[in-house]
Structure formats: structure tokens, C-alpha cells
Amino acid sequence: MSSRIELRGVGQTFLVRGNDDRQLREFVALEGLDLDIAAGEFLTVVGPSGCGKSTVLDLIAGLAKPTSGSITIDGTPITGPGLDRSVVFQQYTLLPWRTAQANIEFALEAKGGLSKAQRQERARTYLELVGLTEFAGRYPHELSGGMKQRVAIARSLSYQPEVLLMDEPYGALDAQTRERLQEELVTIWQRTGTTVVFITHDIDEAVFLGQRVAVMSNRPGRIKAIVDIDLDRSGAGDRDVRATAEFAAYRHEVWTLLREEHAPGRPSPAHRKEDAHVA
Ligand SMILES: Nc1ncnc2c1ncn2[C@@H]1O[C@H](COP(=O)(O)OP(=O)(O)OP(=O)(O)O)[C@@H](O)[C@H]1O
Predict the structure, then answer these.
(1) Measuring CA to CA, which residue among 199, 218, 173 is closest to residue 57?
(2) Cα angle value 75/78/84 (rounded, 5°)
(3) Which site among 104, 135, 185, 205 is 20 to 30 Å from 248 CA-CA?
(4) Phi, psi of 205, deg, nearest 5
(5) Ligand 1 center to residue 135 CA distance, Å?
(6) In angstroms, what is the span from residue 271 Cα to ligand 1's centroid?
(7) pLDDT tens string for the chain (279 positions)?
(8) 7, 17, 27: residue to mutate for ligand 1 pocket, most atoms within 8 A of CB
């Protein structure tokens, strides 16, 4: 239940109005972006604000078409949204008039192909996976922010997508809830083998979650470097993986790459583009 995704020479140009003359002009958000995402991998994406992270995710989701280049999933061009891919956004997009369980069932109804009993069973299974069995009957306003996001994740996983696309899904959560959900997500990913692409501003989050961290350059966005992360996350709930020396070293590597983007004239000698694994 996983898919391989390839982006080749992807460019995205938007037409925007100039501040002064209000004339339409081209705005290059992405240019010549190459990226390979292996089947079943957990890839995190970091980059300066406005570098095009969400644009990349929208393109993979099929919510937009690139101006140039190609994007394929298992060799087939992506031409629009599909049930093989599911997106989780920062805002909890739950229906307020439906319970947690009914929100998931509703999404499965839209997908089709399952009887009512199967939908109910599937919704229960995924609520259990995110630890919300006891809250199945609650409405969104009766849930905490972290719980709502867990329902949104359970709903996305319930379609059993091959690819889970996550755009800053934990951005609005407090630090402790965020860490717990990161650990839960790693466990779910290990169990399901889904391909995950996860966008974040948070370097710790990117290092903790990703098997690889893709660092994007300033606009126009490209993949500047890929950092392979080899961390033992087993027992992450009991062991503070984030406090280990390995974690700190990876964190520093990603931080330095990002730092160069904020001060592009002064690359650090240890992390010049040619020293890193450039995708
Ligand atoms: N539909 C659009 N029309 C015009 N410009 C757009 C559109 N969508 C995105 N942009 C511009 O493209 C650039 C990349 O936007 P995007 O949201 O992908 O960046 P990002 O890296 O996700 O940003 P952030 O980290 O701040 O969320 C930004 O400068 C944004 O203003």
C-alpha cells in the first residue's frame, strides 16, 4: 500500500498583480525542481517561508498543474486529485455537525464501495489507531485541537491511501501534543507502510519524523539538499530520542542548510551545496 513519486524539472509560475501598476506579471514559485520519493518512505520537507513547500504538495495532490516538468506516481502522470492520495491540512477540516465517527464514515461514503456496516467498522478501526475510541461519539467542538487533528488523520488514513500528504498538520498545536502526535504518526506509518510527505517549519519535527529531510532553497523553490536521517525511533515514547547526540547532529545539519538560505551570500564551508547530497 505505497507508491513511488517522481518530480522532474517541475516549475510553477503564477500570474500576480504588481503592487504599483496592478499589471499582471509572472511570479516564479518553483523552478527546475527534481525529487524522488520512494514507495513507503517518510519524507519531510523544510524550507524558508514562501519557498513553495505547499505548492509542491498541491502539485503532488493534483490540486494544481505544474507550468513545466512532470510529476508521476508509479510512472503514471498525475492529472488531478485521486483516492490514492490523501491530504491533511493545518486546519482541522471536520464537519461540525457530525461526530468523530460520523466524520470518518461520511468521507468513506464519498469514496464509495463499502457497505454501511463496513464504513462503521473501518471508522472504528482508524479511531482506535489514533487512540480516540472513547471519543467516537463526540462532536468536533467537544474535542481538543490535538484530538480534532487526530480525527482528520484517522479520516485520511481510513481511505487507505497509498500516499499521505501532510501540510503543517501540527502547526497549530502546543509543543507536548505535537510531540505525542509525532510519535503516534511514526507508529502508524510503521504499521501501514504508507508513503508520507510531511511539510513543516519545525526542524526538530522534520528530523524526528523523516527518513529523509528535503531542504528547499529560497524562491524560486528547488530541492537544495536531501539529508538522510538514520535514527532509532523505537520506544520513542519512553526514550527521549530528541535529546540524543545523533539527533542534535542531524538537527544542526538541517539548520545550517536553512541558515544559508536566510544569508545566501555566505554559505558555510561545511555545507556548501556541492558538499551536500543534492537531489
Ligand atoms: N495561487 C497563487 N497565486 C499567486 N501566488 C501564489 C499562489 N500560490 C502560492 N503563491 C506564491 O508562491 C510562493 C510559494 O507559496 P507556498 O505557499 O507554496 O510557500 P510555502 O513554502 O508553503 O510558504 P509558507 O512556509 O510560508 O507556508 C509564495 O510566494 C506565494 O505567495
Answers:
(1) 199
(2) 85
(3) 185
(4) -65, -45
(5) 36
(6) 26
(7) 567 999 999 999 999 888 877 788 899 999 999 999 999 999 999 999 999 999 999 999 999 999 999 999 999 999 999 888 988 887 778 999 999 999 999 989 887 889 999 999 999 998 988 889 999 999 999 998 889 988 998 898 888 888 999 999 888 788 888 888 888 888 888 888 899 999 999 999 999 999 999 999 998 899 999 999 999 877 666 778 889 999 999 999 999 999 988 765 544 444 433 333 333
(8) 27
Atom nearest to 201 CA in ligand 1: 25
Cα-flanking dihedrals φ and ψ of residue 81, to 5°?
Answer: -65, 155
Residue whose Cα lies nearest atom 9 of ligand 1: it is 55
Name which residue sits closest to atom 17 of ligand 1, judged by CA. Answer: 54
Output the CA angle 187-192-193, nearest 5 degrees: 100
> How many whole angstroms from 167 Cα to the centroid of ligand 1?
13
Q: Which three cell numbers stand for residue 111?
A: 469514496
Cell of 100: 468523530
Please tell me the residue having the least CA distance from ligand 1 atom 29. 50
Instruction: Give ligand 1 pocket residues (Cβ under 6 A).
Output: 14, 16, 27, 29, 47, 49-55, 219
131: left (phi over 0), alpha (psi -120 to 50) or beta: left
The DSSP code for 221 is B
How many angstroms is it from 85 CA to the middle of ligand 1?
21
Instruction: To the nearest 10°, report the CA torsion of 185, 190, 195, 201.
Output: 30
Residue nearest to atom 3 of ligand 1 (CA): 14
Q: Is the pTM of this model over 0.80?
A: yes
Which residue reads 513545466 in cell numbers?
68
